[in-house]
Amino acid sequence: MTRSVPDRLDDLPYAELLRPHTGPLRSDERYDTVHFDGGEHTDESVAGAAFLECAFTGVALSGVKLRQARFNEVWVQAGRWVACDLSDSEWQDSSFVGGVLAGVAGYGSALRRVVFRGCKLEAVNLRSAVLRDVVFEDCLLRDVDFGEAKLTSVSFPGSTLEEVRLRGATLSKTDLRGAVRLGLTDGHQGLRGAVISSTQLLELAPQFAQALGIEVKDR
Asked: Residue ranges of the chain with pLDDT lower than 50?
Protein backbone atom coordinates (compact mmCIF):
# COMPACT_ATOMS: atom_id res chain seq x y z
CA MET A 1 0.00 0.00 0.00
CA THR A 2 1.22 3.48 -0.84
CA ARG A 3 -0.39 6.47 0.82
CA SER A 4 0.55 10.11 0.67
CA VAL A 5 1.08 11.36 4.21
CA PRO A 6 1.34 15.14 4.75
CA ASP A 7 4.44 16.38 6.53
CA ARG A 8 2.90 19.75 7.41
CA LEU A 9 -0.33 20.72 9.11
CA ASP A 10 -1.23 23.10 6.27
CA ASP A 11 -1.16 20.20 3.81
CA LEU A 12 -4.06 18.40 5.48
CA PRO A 13 -7.20 18.47 3.31
CA TYR A 14 -9.20 19.69 6.32
CA ALA A 15 -6.56 22.15 7.64
CA GLU A 16 -8.71 25.25 7.10
CA LEU A 17 -11.57 23.72 9.10
CA LEU A 18 -9.53 22.96 12.21
CA ARG A 19 -10.35 24.83 15.39
CA PRO A 20 -8.10 24.89 18.50
CA HIS A 21 -8.84 22.71 21.49
CA THR A 22 -8.56 23.90 25.07
CA GLY A 23 -9.10 22.18 28.38
CA PRO A 24 -9.01 18.50 29.32
CA LEU A 25 -9.94 15.55 27.17
CA ARG A 26 -13.26 13.88 27.96
CA SER A 27 -14.66 10.37 27.71
CA ASP A 28 -17.29 9.60 25.06
CA GLU A 29 -16.77 13.05 23.51
CA ARG A 30 -16.94 13.56 19.73
CA TYR A 31 -14.09 15.72 18.44
CA ASP A 32 -14.68 16.85 14.86
CA THR A 33 -12.01 18.90 12.99
CA VAL A 34 -10.19 19.83 16.19
CA HIS A 35 -6.52 20.82 16.47
CA PHE A 36 -4.72 19.64 19.61
CA ASP A 37 -1.52 21.67 19.69
CA GLY A 38 1.23 21.12 22.26
CA GLY A 39 0.71 20.65 25.96
CA GLU A 40 0.62 17.52 28.07
CA HIS A 41 -2.30 15.40 29.22
CA THR A 42 -1.69 13.08 32.16
CA ASP A 43 -3.86 10.30 33.58
CA GLU A 44 -7.02 11.54 31.87
CA SER A 45 -9.81 9.18 30.85
CA VAL A 46 -10.93 9.58 27.25
CA ALA A 47 -12.48 6.14 26.84
CA GLY A 48 -14.94 5.86 23.99
CA ALA A 49 -14.13 9.26 22.51
CA ALA A 50 -14.29 9.78 18.74
CA PHE A 51 -11.78 11.86 16.77
CA LEU A 52 -12.76 12.75 13.20
CA GLU A 53 -10.46 14.76 10.93
CA CYS A 54 -8.36 15.94 13.87
CA ALA A 55 -4.71 16.91 14.16
CA PHE A 56 -2.33 16.44 17.09
CA THR A 57 0.92 18.44 16.92
CA GLY A 58 3.54 18.06 19.63
CA VAL A 59 1.04 16.66 22.12
CA ALA A 60 2.35 14.56 25.03
CA LEU A 61 0.02 11.96 26.53
CA SER A 62 1.07 10.14 29.69
CA GLY A 63 -1.09 7.46 31.25
CA VAL A 64 -4.11 8.61 29.24
CA LYS A 65 -6.91 6.05 28.90
CA LEU A 66 -8.19 5.93 25.31
CA ARG A 67 -9.79 2.50 25.48
CA GLN A 68 -12.34 1.95 22.67
CA ALA A 69 -11.62 5.40 21.23
CA ARG A 70 -12.07 5.91 17.48
CA PHE A 71 -9.64 7.78 15.22
CA ASN A 72 -10.77 8.51 11.68
CA GLU A 73 -8.57 10.64 9.38
CA VAL A 74 -6.40 11.75 12.28
CA TRP A 75 -2.90 13.18 11.81
CA VAL A 76 -0.43 12.98 14.71
CA GLN A 77 2.91 14.80 14.42
CA ALA A 78 5.78 14.68 16.92
CA GLY A 79 3.56 13.09 19.53
CA ARG A 80 4.91 11.44 22.66
CA TRP A 81 2.41 8.92 23.97
CA VAL A 82 3.67 7.03 27.02
CA ALA A 83 1.91 4.34 29.08
CA CYS A 84 -1.40 5.05 27.34
CA ASP A 85 -4.27 2.57 27.10
CA LEU A 86 -5.36 2.29 23.47
CA SER A 87 -6.81 -1.20 23.81
CA ASP A 88 -9.80 -1.99 21.60
CA SER A 89 -9.38 1.37 19.83
CA GLU A 90 -10.08 1.82 16.12
CA TRP A 91 -7.84 3.69 13.67
CA GLN A 92 -8.69 4.35 10.04
CA ASP A 93 -7.06 6.50 7.33
CA SER A 94 -4.74 8.02 9.94
CA SER A 95 -1.03 8.69 10.33
CA PHE A 96 1.52 9.07 13.11
CA VAL A 97 4.52 11.08 11.95
CA GLY A 98 7.81 11.48 13.81
CA GLY A 99 6.68 10.53 17.29
CA VAL A 100 7.15 8.08 20.13
CA LEU A 101 4.83 5.42 21.50
CA ALA A 102 6.24 3.75 24.60
CA GLY A 103 4.61 1.33 27.01
CA VAL A 104 1.36 1.60 25.07
CA ALA A 105 -1.38 -1.02 25.45
CA GLY A 106 -3.00 -1.46 22.05
CA TYR A 107 -4.23 -5.04 22.32
CA GLY A 108 -7.45 -5.83 20.49
CA SER A 109 -7.19 -2.61 18.48
CA ALA A 110 -8.08 -2.35 14.79
CA LEU A 111 -5.90 -0.38 12.36
CA ARG A 112 -6.91 0.09 8.73
CA ARG A 113 -4.98 2.23 6.23
CA VAL A 114 -2.69 3.66 8.90
CA VAL A 115 0.87 4.94 8.37
CA PHE A 116 3.61 5.25 10.99
CA ARG A 117 6.50 7.30 9.58
CA GLY A 118 9.77 8.01 11.36
CA CYS A 119 8.37 6.80 14.68
CA LYS A 120 9.77 4.90 17.63
CA LEU A 121 7.55 2.18 19.04
CA GLU A 122 8.90 0.61 22.23
CA ALA A 123 7.18 -1.89 24.52
CA VAL A 124 3.94 -1.61 22.53
CA ASN A 125 1.39 -4.37 23.08
CA LEU A 126 -0.58 -5.12 19.91
CA ARG A 127 -1.68 -8.62 20.89
CA SER A 128 -4.84 -9.77 19.13
CA ALA A 129 -4.90 -6.54 17.13
CA VAL A 130 -6.09 -6.47 13.52
CA LEU A 131 -3.87 -4.54 11.09
CA ARG A 132 -4.86 -4.12 7.45
CA ASP A 133 -3.04 -1.91 4.92
CA VAL A 134 -0.67 -0.57 7.58
CA VAL A 135 2.78 0.85 6.83
CA PHE A 136 5.67 1.23 9.28
CA GLU A 137 8.05 3.47 7.34
CA ASP A 138 11.54 4.29 8.68
CA CYS A 139 10.46 3.29 12.19
CA LEU A 140 12.11 1.54 15.11
CA LEU A 141 9.99 -1.24 16.55
CA ARG A 142 11.54 -2.51 19.77
CA ASP A 143 9.83 -5.00 22.07
CA VAL A 144 6.59 -4.82 20.06
CA ASP A 145 4.19 -7.72 20.62
CA PHE A 146 2.07 -8.86 17.66
CA GLY A 147 1.09 -12.13 19.38
CA GLU A 148 -2.21 -13.56 18.11
CA ALA A 149 -2.60 -10.47 15.88
CA LYS A 150 -3.80 -10.53 12.27
CA LEU A 151 -1.60 -8.64 9.82
CA THR A 152 -2.85 -8.21 6.26
CA SER A 153 -1.00 -6.15 3.66
CA VAL A 154 1.38 -4.72 6.27
CA SER A 155 4.84 -3.46 5.27
CA PHE A 156 7.97 -2.20 7.05
CA PRO A 157 10.06 -0.18 4.53
CA GLY A 158 13.24 1.19 6.09
CA SER A 159 12.25 0.01 9.56
CA THR A 160 14.28 -1.79 12.21
CA LEU A 161 12.64 -4.59 14.17
CA GLU A 162 14.20 -5.58 17.49
CA GLU A 163 12.76 -8.16 19.88
CA VAL A 164 9.49 -8.27 17.98
CA ARG A 165 7.11 -11.11 18.88
CA LEU A 166 4.83 -12.90 16.44
CA ARG A 167 3.75 -15.95 18.44
CA GLY A 168 0.33 -17.07 17.20
CA ALA A 169 0.09 -14.21 14.68
CA THR A 170 -1.60 -14.66 11.30
CA LEU A 171 0.11 -12.91 8.39
CA SER A 172 -1.25 -12.41 4.89
CA LYS A 173 0.44 -10.42 2.12
CA THR A 174 2.74 -8.92 4.73
CA ASP A 175 5.96 -7.62 3.20
CA LEU A 176 9.05 -7.66 5.40
CA ARG A 177 11.60 -7.25 2.61
CA GLY A 178 12.09 -3.55 3.22
CA ALA A 179 13.00 -3.97 6.88
CA VAL A 180 16.57 -2.94 7.69
CA ARG A 181 16.72 -5.51 10.48
CA LEU A 182 14.37 -8.36 11.26
CA GLY A 183 14.91 -9.21 14.92
CA LEU A 184 12.25 -11.66 16.10
CA THR A 185 12.25 -13.25 19.54
CA ASP A 186 9.57 -15.86 18.79
CA GLY A 187 6.73 -16.79 16.48
CA HIS A 188 8.84 -17.71 13.47
CA GLN A 189 6.12 -20.15 12.40
CA GLY A 190 3.86 -17.09 12.26
CA LEU A 191 5.82 -15.84 9.24
CA ARG A 192 3.72 -18.10 7.05
CA GLY A 193 2.00 -15.70 4.64
CA ALA A 194 4.80 -13.13 4.80
CA VAL A 195 7.29 -12.15 2.09
CA ILE A 196 10.97 -11.92 3.04
CA SER A 197 14.16 -11.50 1.03
CA SER A 198 16.73 -14.21 0.42
CA THR A 199 19.17 -12.33 2.67
CA GLN A 200 16.62 -12.24 5.49
CA LEU A 201 16.00 -15.95 4.98
CA LEU A 202 19.68 -16.71 5.51
CA GLU A 203 19.78 -14.51 8.61
CA LEU A 204 16.73 -16.21 10.09
CA ALA A 205 17.78 -19.76 9.17
CA PRO A 206 19.24 -20.62 12.63
CA GLN A 207 16.05 -19.41 14.33
CA PHE A 208 13.86 -21.35 11.90
CA ALA A 209 15.89 -24.47 12.63
CA GLN A 210 15.55 -23.97 16.37
CA ALA A 211 11.79 -23.36 16.08
CA LEU A 212 11.45 -26.63 14.12
CA GLY A 213 13.56 -28.58 16.61
CA ILE A 214 16.38 -29.07 14.13
CA GLU A 215 19.88 -29.42 15.54
CA VAL A 216 22.52 -28.07 13.15
CA LYS A 217 26.06 -29.49 13.44
CA ASP A 218 28.92 -29.29 10.97
CA ARG A 219 30.94 -32.07 12.59
From this structure: 1
